[in-house]
Write a structure and sequence with these properties.
This protein is mainly alpha-helical. Helix content is 69%, strand content 1%. It has a two-stranded antiparallel sheet. The chain is globular. The protein starts with a helix and ends with a helix.
Length: 286
């Protein structure tokens, strides 16, 4: 890519990122949960200023996804019960769900299905990380939730071009290849750029950027990149696709080897994944 083309893409990505900003409350929640000295009361105060957000968090917390034995009615109890990182994940799930509001259908694409896919990959990524014994299961959830951020941004800000991509999709060609042909960039590049602009951790931004091409990644966060790539593929194999087309190629064998995934661990993941994805529906639409 020429320097001029790179600069043009960066200007485009900045404009898109400015159109779809992450609210100040979400930024504050991210900042607090990355701060080792932050406490639960600071997090409660940051979230508590938005009554609608609190109501949505509690509704999802009391859904079948968490399967609690009693109803939680206040934010302090929720934070004490789940901890700062899980409340962060739940808060970001609620915020991001707002990006996907509004009905948009084109060809086999439905915006609500893209959101369901995103939550499904988040849940699957956490499962893969846990079964593989990798640290950062909660980081895996966030990276999975955001991995297709670029797609919803394309839908919202470059809709006519997004529809051209949808019309050109087939089951033999990966989405990123179609995007690069039509747009000269792909949703993973866009999503990773915007995630960095929104101050998400570098590990999460890297996982977004490389989730379709994990073999190209050479940085320090390979485990998370590989976890999200595997989770995305497993969800697509089960029919939980982002755009209504089953065109996600399997990750290379090296990705599975580096995660320590063998026949036994894959069998465990498959056994638990159906149930996890069924529960994810309650989290996505609660």
């Amino acid at each position: 890519m020429t320097p001029a083309r790179q600069a043009a893409l960066e200007r485009l990505f900045v404009r898109i990122g400015e159109v779809a900003t992450l609210p100040a409350t979400a930024q504050r929640v991210l900042q607090l949960t990355e701060d080792e000295n932050a406490d639960a009361e600071q997090l409660r105060e940051a979230i508590g200023g938005d009554p609608v957000l609190v109501a949505r968090i509690l509704r999802r917390l009391n859904s079948s996804y968490y399967a609690l034995s009693y109803k939680v009615a206040d934010l302090r109890t929720a934070i004490n019960l789940l901890g700062l990182r899980e409340i962060r994940n739940l808060t970001l799930t609620v915020f991001l769900s707002r990006l996907y509001e509004g009905e948009t259908n084109h060809a086999r694409y439905k915006r609500e299905n893209l959101w369901g896919h995103s939550v499904g990959v988040a849940v699957a990524a956490r499962l893969v990380a846990r079964v593989c014994g990798r640290s950062g299961c909660e980081e895996a959830y966030i990276a999975g939730l955001l991995h297709d951020l670029g797609l919803i941004l394309l839908d919202q800000t470059l809709h006519r071009h997004f529809c051209k991509v949808l019309d050109a999709l087939d089951e033999q060609t990966p989405t990123f290849a179609v995007e690069n042909r039509i747009l000269t960039f792909d949703h993973a590049m866009l999503g990773g750029f915007v995630a960095r602009k929104w101050n998400f951790p570098e590990s999460v931004a890297d996982a977004i950027t490389y989730h379709h091409q994990p073999w190209c990644y050479q940085g320090p966060h390979a485990d998370l990149v590989h976890v999200v790539a595997v989770a995305n593929y497993l969800c697509a194999r089960l029919g939980l696709t982002a755009l209504g087309v089953s065109n996600v190629p399997p990750p290379p064998d090296e990705v599975y080897r580096q995660l320590g995934l063998d026949q036994v661990t894959l069998a465990i993941i498959w056994q638990e994944l159906d149930v996890a994805l069924e529960k994810a529906v309650a989290l996505a639409h609660g």
